[in-house]
Write a structure and sequence with these properties.
Length: about 800
Amino acid sequence: MDELPKNYDANISEQKWADYWKEKGTYKFDETRKKKIFSIDTPPPYASADHLHVGHAMHYSQFEFIARYKKMKGFNVFFPMGYDDNGLPTERFVEKKHNVNKNTITRANFIKLCLEETKKCGVVYYNLFTRLGFSIDWDLLFQTIDDRSRHVSQASFIALYKKKLLDHTDQPTTWCMTCQTTIAQADFENVDLQSTFNDIVFKSENQDLIISTTRPELIPACVALFTNPDDERYQKLKGKFAAVPLFNYKVPILFDETVDKEKGTGLMMCCTFGDKEDVEKWYKYKLPLKIVFTEDGRLNDSVPEFKGLKIKDARAKIIEALKNCGALIKQQPITHAVNVHERCGTEVEFMKKKQWSIRVLDKKDELIEAGNKVNWYPEHMKIRYEHWVRNLQWDWGISRQRYYGVPFPLWYCDKCGSVKFPEIKDLPIDPREQNPKTPCPCGNNTFTPEMDVMDTWMTSSMTPYINAHWTMQDEKKDFVPMSLRPQAHDIIRTWAFYTIVKAHFLENKSPWENIMISGHGQDPHGKKMSKSKGNFVVADEVIQKYSADALRYWAAGAKLGEDMPYQEKDVLTGKKTITKIWNASKFTMMNLKDYNASAINELDMHQLETMDRWLISKLMRLVKSSTDSFEKYEYSTAKRETDVFFWQNFCDSYLEFIKHRTYNSTDEESKLAAQKTLYYALLTQLKLFAPIMPFITEEIYQMYFKEFEREDSIHTTTWPEFTSELVDEKSERTGDLVVQIISEVRKYKSTKQLSLKAELNSVTIACKKDEQELLAGVAQDIKAIGLIKDLSFETSEELCVVIE
RNA sequence: GGACCUAUGGUCUAGUGGUAUGACGUCCGCUUGACUCGCGGGAGAUCCCCGGUUCGAAUCCGGGUGGGUCCACCA
């Protein structure tokens, strides 16, 4: 081995090894699949980010650790990347960035813009992920808008139809006025909004009926008043009608036990539609329909005096008009929770729309059961899934009145109205651009295409099947269930839920064997990172300053499932650790200069000295616990334990303890034993660190160990095996005593403000008899390490070191 | 309103039925032939509060309080 470079330059080395891995195809999935597969259902990030923050890096790093661990464990790791670039998230991103919307740009131009932006985002992700050293096989890349994904999601729609799990109904459904599309329950977000309770008078014969509402603009959509059948105040109203103020028409007064007597005046108006209650009452009592909004959230022709006003403006104007005619008698400010569309923050409204939906409400029990078949890590995250399923209120509406998404693969026959599907082999298709190849069974040959596109989750929920090339010619049979789904906890109700729904309905399978749920990287104060708040830490800048390994080191500190605030000092600790690994390795290699590693095959404890066995035995315990931790996806425990072992046992103790054996060696055998231990211990520790810090470990492996180990990369070597022959409790006990004694000696020198190199004339160790026996064999070590001239022993119940 | 998670030295953090881990900071010392991004040492924690189980609890159970997250509440 040549002279060692003095310093480690992470920026140069990390680029070098990233290039090396790419060139060698280190992380290629083996298509011949001779080894057992470990497959990862990688979260496809939305193609809607210009810069990525340390939270992104943290989330993806955490299962990258697992991918690397599994590879070293001998698995054929299937680690793809996907980009989620279809659907509303992308559309919103493009609309904002280019200041366009559905009404101001043609469909073709809009799709073109989406594709361009998507491409740019792909580059951003690729750059960060390769810079972080991710062991992704980029040949497995998919995009949710590509042919394969469109094929698979369209095929899933047809399959669900054939299994009679779909409904195609014209009914009131949740609607976003900004995005102008139907949306699903999972697309909601809850926010607290300031609003006003308005007490409004409805006249009924000679009585004033007061209702309280936050939505006076819905008064022209009022179709009935309701009160509780037990409410004594309103018994006389049975069979009566009330006059709607301002709009001068009459609505029936009805009784329903769901009305809360205590709330407001105990009277409520039912409009089409203000909330889910309205929808239910509308169905139950077969009430008329009075739609007052247009699809983009303005009052429509049915209210000529307010026509064209946006909802909020209409509210103000109507309140004013109510005031003027004396119908508004009281106003009171309130804060209340409102569902908004998570993509744009617009309050959820209702619109009657013909749409496709997947029936889930009548299958809650079996869906909860399906979730139980997956192993959840951490286990308590399963509860969130269960709660979500149990609390579902709507079937999964999958129609979106948008441009950029996967089209429904179907046409409607112009004559008989029945649906017509393409052949699976012809997918993907766009029914708006092509006609069916065969006529309708009714004989007719003219069709109308479905114009809507599918919910983006229709595609995302198919990621295991996209990876499996489901129903395609080159389908990978038995690929589902995949081994692992890694994802964050905030999308349990969407991605995890929808994926479980699809696999269960399509093939009565679990989509994966295991699911690991990670937390979020937050700002230093535990708040969510966002650009607008200015607490956004750009991943690239951290990497530039501290290295990718250091950022990964920080990411490995988060316990599975728990959010973690970003602390720059922890990245710095990572950087220090890397430097320490570099220096300790440099020192080890120096000591191994005249050591012929290829001469030994296996470590033999009988050839080692007590302190060597102490280290190796403790190392074995570390191997065991680290392996156990990784098996449970507890990378943070594995990292911490390895870290502590490396600093304390290896560097602070062992490396100091053997200096006298490797430098002032008169005893060649002793020196060789230390060298064997050094080689084995350093390589093992590098392997244990390799999943967390792939670059520095590779650097050192390449510099020294490769020559003997003969593998192209440390990442293709095998994970250390726990070997019970290498555990030696007696040596561990002895070594621990030595550490204790040396600590006392160091303490003495430190207190006396002496150099650790200072010699001591006489040291007496007082300890138990059996401890004396143990220590007898390492007396020479103690003397050499502590620079002690005379060492003697005394018997005592408690360990005590007397120094003169 | 419900559920889940969480509460540990100045700060962040690990863990356990027998008073506690590591990091950062702080103080003192050491240029020990890998490393000052270092080495050695010190100070600093009644492990949120109240009950219960136990020989023994900070660790288990119940209740409370604070924080986080998810869900419900939209008249």
